[in-house]
Amino acid sequence: MSFGFLGIQFGFALQGGFMSRIFQTLGAEVDDIPGLWIAAPLTGLLVQPIIGYLSDNTWSPKFGRRKPFFLIGAILASITLFFMPHSPALWIAAGLLWVLDSSINISMEPFRALVADKLPESQRSNGFVIQTLIIGIGTWIASNLPWLVNKLGVSNEAAAGVIPNSVIVAFSVGAFVFFASILYTIFTTKEDPPKDLEKFLSEKKESSFIPDLVESLKDMPSTMKKLGLIQFFSWFAFFTMWSLSMPALTEHVFNSPKPDVKEYAQLDKEGKALKNDKKEVIYLSANKKQEYESKDKVYNDAADLVGSATGVYGLSSMAFALLLTFYTMKNKINRKYIHMGSLILGGLGFIFMFYATPSTLMYSFILIGFAWGSILSMPYAMLSSSVNPNKMGMMMGLFNMFIVIPQIIAALGGINYLYKLIGEAHINAMLLAGLSLIIAGLCNFFITDKNAISG
What own/partner pairs with CB < 8 Å and gap ≥ 24 does 198-204 have? Predict the structure, then answer.
């Protein structure tokens, strides 16, 4: 039932781990990167409530309720993943990110609703934790793909403004895994029809998106609103990591920032690097070309290592999920305190990045993985115990607002403004992420609903 999340996470991890690298390669300045990411949360804000509503009101004896949306999202995401690293210009890469994130969103929330659909209340914590286990596997493997294909002989070097072949191959593998894993869930999972099919069909005829949306917003339980506050600070932190960890860590931990080709090339009147008829950069001299390529090689090696270190949070989230899986099979848990402790540990992991070395960076991501594993399971387990099961898809989609709004704020300048209050160095963005995650952890004190807490 949850295996398709392996593919979704392949797409999500490649997007989160390497889009900033693609943006930098195509000429983006570091402080412009969060703004280029704005497509991702904007599409989530628009797409997920609509997809949730449609999946709530869909039933086909042949295709099921949620599965049609898995398939549509998988087709679109796989095609976009394949073409993303072939982007010839920055604006094309930003546009493809918009399509990619929309497609992942089309698949993702129906998957979460499927778990709530098929599992009784007593098994939902276990179900979401197993989903997190699969997500952790996908995160680790996908984050290591560029490093792995480079070790297998695919070059991670390329001309200025060109995406390395190792990244291209990694995204192609991700496209295949995304599609194949979604198909596996579609062909092996049977969806149950609504308990009262006649009533469902009658309500479907009378339903309308805007009135249902307004009613759902009005009926939003207090627990969902409190969880929304936790989600706000949690996802602000992780958006900061996805958008700025690559430039921050290659620069601060590996002392290997991306070289600016404009310092080595002839420039036109607009200050851009001149190119010849073959679209190759015209350097100031042969020595400048060699110097740029040497520094760019060091950066690409560091970027591969940052990607591999980032994948560690997938492993630790997987270990976290595995422990919870075994425990929740026979015991109830206090979701509130587990989530609180995990988020605080993740916040400390971000703060430790300031002091990390290449050999100790992985420990930061181990701690971050505890937070990630909890974020992917505990809020949804608490939410599913608090909402109308007949509107699970819509509520999951609305809950996504508390995920995308902080990301939109971050992308529109929130990250750049706040981290520069600490200092100009890009590593301070990771300190900001740590503080945000600790605040998210402390906000769990607001959760008081016993049904949400115990599971």
Answer: 200/59, 201/59, 203/390, 204/57, 204/59
Residue 199 in tokens: 């009533």
The domains of the chain are located at: 4-453
Per DSSP, the residues of 294-331 read HHHHHHHHHHHHHHHHHHHHHHHHHHHHHHHHHHHTTS
Which residues sit opposite 334 in a β-bridge?
A: 454
- Cα–Cα separations (whole angstroms), residue 415 to 27, 193, 241, 420: 20, 45, 10, 8
Distance CA 109, CA 70 (A): 9
The phi, psi pair for 194, rounded to 5°, reads -55, 145
Burial class (CB in 10 A: 0-12, 13-18, 19+), 329: exposed
The predicted model scores a pTM of 0.78
Q: What are the angstrom distances between the C-alpha of 263 and each of 4, 62, 96?
A: 45, 60, 29
* Per-position pLDDT tens, the chain of length 455: 778 878 888 888 888 888 888 998 888 888 888 888 887 777 777 777 777 777 777 777 777 777 888 788 889 999 999 999 999 888 899 889 888 888 887 777 777 677 767 777 667 667 767 777 787 788 888 888 898 998 899 988 888 888 999 999 999 999 999 999 988 888 888 877 777 667 766 766 666 667 777 777 777 778 888 898 999 999 999 999 989 999 999 999 999 999 988 899 988 888 888 888 878 888 999 999 999 999 999 999 999 999 889 888 888 988 887 787 777 777 788 888 999 999 999 999 999 999 999 999 999 999 999 998 888 778 877 877 666 666 666 676 677 778 888 988 998 889 999 999 999 999 999 999 999 999 999 999 998 888 777 76
CB distance 320 to 370 below 8 Å: yes
Question: Can you say whether the dihedral through the CA atoms of 67, 398, 40, 415 is positive or negative?
Answer: negative
List C-alpha distances in Å: 79 to 83, 115, 173, 177, 296: 7, 26, 12, 12, 29
Structure tokens that stand for 20 in this block? 């900033």
Burial category of 22 from C-beta neighbours within 10 Å (exposed 0-12, middle 13-18, buried 19 and up):
buried
Six-digit token string for 295: 């520094």
Q: Which CATH architecture has domain 4-453?
A: Up-down Bundle (1.20)
